[in-house]
Amino acid sequence: LGLALYASSLCAVSGTTFPYHDYCVIGAGPAGLQAAYFLQQAGRDYIVFERSHSPGSFFALYPRHRKLISINKQYTGKSNSEFNLRHDWNSLLSHDRRLRFRRYSHDFFPDADTMVRYLEDFASLLKLRVQYNTAIIHVTLERNEQAWNGHYFLLTDQDRKNYKCSSLLVATGMWVPNVVNFPGSEYVEGYETVSINPEDFAGQTVLILGRGNSAFETAENILGVTNFIHMVSRSRVRLSWATHYVGDLRAINNGLLDTYQLKSLDGLLEGDLEDLAIVKDKKGKLHITLRFYLENRNFSAGIDSIILPQDELDNFATRAPYDRVIRCLGWKFDFSIYNRSLKLMPGKGNIKKYPQIKPSYESRGTRGLFVLGTASHSVDFRKSAGGFIHGFRYTTRAVHRLLENRHHGVPWPSTVYPITQLTNSIIKRVNEASGLYQMFSVLADIILLRENATAFEYLEEYPVGVLAELEMQTGRKAPNGLFVIIMEYGRNFSGADKDVFYYNRAVGEAQHAWQSNFLHPVIYYYKHLPTEREMRLRPPEWPLPRPDAIHHIVEDFLTDWTAPNAHILPLRRFLENCLSTDLRNFFAESCFLFAFTRQKLPPFCQQGYVRMQGLMGSEGLRHHAVQAGLLKDYTPTDFSGDRPPDSHHRSQDQLLRDHVIPVRPLQHLVNAKDE
């Protein structure tokens, strides 16, 4: 009977018409709203489902002590909005300048309530299509050969209403608390519910489980009122300034390190939390012991029947009882709402809290399911900023561009330039681009060379993990080689055990640029697009396979790569060597001379002077060129007869102004030489 009822319900469902959208987005946090913005700008059919009554519900509760650790730099000395996004870690991408976070807060570390207000304005001002108070509780597949990906996604909300979509974008973030179960774990308070009033901890002894920013944030709040605080975790403390990973411990929260190292009672310990046990005595004090001491013993019989570590080792580190134990172990992805048919599986090892996805941010198990925002951080965990707003705002845009090409035939945006603009284009991007800067080693600019290297096509912020699939994913062709521009730290500079403040840590000479430690641009040159096999076999810790040629632009203290000799000249010579061409700019006189003395004109002369393009000469420009040593001074020094001294200058100026006279014969001469 049960099987018959189930079958009949399936038939009823299959015959029902559900509300349909091309794109369904689950979650109206920063990533969900960012995806909605790009879909709306492209005129796509989409809907965003949000379980709360307003966007950004995570920030309404977290961080518990209300101070964000994402910087909000008001001033950079520059007015370039793209550059300024390098130091604005809270704004989402949009065309509306009102939606820059610095207009909402002047604090370097803003309040979380300001983020909630910002996200509400982002959704309302841009009129994003968000359906609030809709909690998606189940997601499954409906096979259909006519669907974009061979199936539809069926979503069910808390009221048992169903929705259908062709592509599913999961932007729910990481909100399920990580919990470790061990004997006595019922006495542990969670970060999500513990009091944030320091007075509630006055005169108490506290043990904190965890060693991330939430743990240190909690400790910082009660540091001045407790007897002492101990912190236990399985790994050593990792400082963000050493690892260059913004998810590690930030300086704003590290007061406990001072009190520990300056011997003011607080301390840090390392140990596997699953080996611990907590025993509560008659006075309500919590004693830390080890799980193996409880084997074959009656745990409920009380502390008197249990051997504690200090009974055998009288200087056991945690022998003093605690008043409170607080769990601050972060969050994990909620897999519970996804049917097995979606094959959305947890990662392995240190990324098991994230779903398994490809470098394109698409699920490994289901085509058409993309994971955005914090939950997509497995792609660059502990490497870049993909788990944070200032990183995933760019990866979300990259996913949108992939979808535009796949489903709507819109190729990845690109711009075609003459080859003479190659050096300038690279210098401009490495000095301004915020996506390259924030998502270092993950997003890269791609330069596709045209035949005979006469022009190039520039693609911005493409995921390097799918470089082998570039032609399929972007709709652009790469038959003539390519350059990949990416930002990197030095290979051996980052790590929890690294001293990043050692003497002579910076490199200043261009010839030693490959030894640069700080973030700097790196240009890879490939004669052919790398294959998937080459991507798999790339050297450890390399973002890309071994190139045919590679160039490091030397690190710069000001992150300003515009120095003519240290930055631009070495880059130009590298590009010239790769392309076997001359990328210099020339005055008209030089191009005129080359036409008679060389078999092949430089590209600048071919694309400019010969086509009657370029700057018109003048006496001031000529004088400047002579002083700079770029042109010889042909000005006569001796005048005779009645000829005015400046008549020679006037004749030269007249020749420059009448540009048709010298250029047309030159065109015939060049053609004749070619023949």
From TrEMBL:
It comes from Pitta sordida (Hooded pitta). This is FAD-dependent oxidoreductase domain-containing protein 2. GO terms for biological process: ERAD pathway. One of its GO terms (molecular function) is monooxygenase activity. Interacts with SEL1L. May interact with OS9 and DNAJC10. Interacts with TXNDC16. One of its GO terms (cellular component) is endoplasmic reticulum lumen. PANTHER family: FAD-DEPENDENT OXIDOREDUCTASE DOMAIN-CONTAINING PROTEIN 2, FLAVIN-BINDING MONOOXYGENASE-LIKE PROTEIN (AFU_ORTHOLOGUE AFUA_4G09220). The keyword Transmembrane does not apply.
